[in-house]
Amino acid sequence: MNPGAGLPPLRVAVIGCGGIATSQHGPAYQKLAGVEIIAGCDIVAERAREFATRFACRAYTDYREMLEHERPDVVDVCTPEDQHVEPTIAALAAGADVLCEKIMAHTLAGGQAMVRTAARTGRFLGVDYNYRFFPIFQEVKRRLAVGELGQLALVTAYTHAFCFHHAIDLLVWLAGPVVTVVGQYTATEDPRYHYRVQCPDFVYVPSRNVCLTLRFASGALGVICASRFDDLHANMLRVEIVGEQGRLTADSIVIHDIIGRLTRWPEKAEITVDAGTERGFNVAFERAIRAFVERVRGAETDAATGEDGLTVLEIEHALKISQAEGREVALPLPRIGEEPLEREGPSRHGRW
Ligand SMILES: NC(=O)c1ccc[n+]([C@@H]2O[C@H](COP(=O)([O-])OP(=O)(O)OC[C@H]3O[C@@H](n4cnc5c(N)ncnc54)[C@H](O)[C@@H]3O)[C@@H](O)[C@H]2O)c1
Known about the structure:
This protein is an alpha/beta fold and 352 residues long. The chain contains nine helices and 15 strands.
């Protein structure tokens, strides 16, 4: 049963009508009962028009005007990473619950301001950490929750650089709070590997490599290694979890087939994952957006919150401190006070 059936329609407006809004978010909302896409906004008028035509809604080029005219229940922020903070804060202040694409902000202060605004307005802020909703990781989470592996020792992820921040969220979601961070990364001179948006406080998408070690409050250790030279069609993400009662290996996950293979060791038993019939990346978006909508409607779900998004930013920032100062960094980082935010502008300096 679709949980929105019979409820008043949830009116969704989208800010940023580019690739991911059009190919994933729009279709995912369309699949949900009781959810209506009412408007799309893009600073490029043609993109806003195309989105409006495709999803039968109204088009805007100024999100403030859209918020004022439409008064949406939900705003979905799909702008580039360095253009998340202002639309998210404006939407929360306009009374909407917000789903913001990852990485939630390009600065730590920006992420903190988003979380503060959500708390002040009492609205729900979600961040689209959709890897939690890969069926294979839902299965791993279920098994860890019942203590199947006993006391955890190691939680490791080997991933493409594009998925590095997703892997951070995933490991924290699976293994719990992180108390210290230590790590290193190096960059390549080759501009082909430099991601289009640079985030001054974070590594985000390393151009060459990164190795990050996490100490969890439980005493387990986590390692995430990522390289930009990897191929998303050959390796997107591989996760291994070792506990005193055995090991789970989630591998064979690639961009066009996120179902992968889950194996339990030492039995070498392949675990069947309840994944439905589809194998594409869309599965993760559909399930993440569904969980966000259910959360907005009051259900407990695995949807990543603004606080979860901020945790990723803190770990990313601690990694930069660790490399710069050659030391382990304790979390949580001290939160910056209530100073006003600088206006957002593209931040493409300092290439990693
Ligand atoms: N969760 C995932 O797995 C996943 C996958 C891919 C992309 N993403 C994220 O989705 C976001 C968007 O990525 P994309 O690939 O769709 O980018 P994109 O460039 O295709 O689209 C972004 C759109 O935002 C518009 N825009 C920029 N500033 C705006 C503003 N102030 N108001 C209105 N529109 C504005 C641009 O004109 C563009 O059309 C990024 O944060 C990216 O990291 C997430």
